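Hey, can you fold this one?
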Amino acid sequence: MAHRAHRHRLEGPCHFSLMSLSVGRRLMLVLLPLALLWLAVSWAAGWWG
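Sure. Predicted structure:
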């Protein structure tokens, strides 16, 4: 009997969980928290005037 394949997406190896997301979603997951952090820091530092 052949190796029983476990269920995962066909795009790539199952251990790349982020690879199952689209590129746009991955970018948003990284950039959105960074942008919010930068906005909070810049506002707290008084850079907005």
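The mean pLDDT is 76. Let me know if you want another pass with a different chain boundary.
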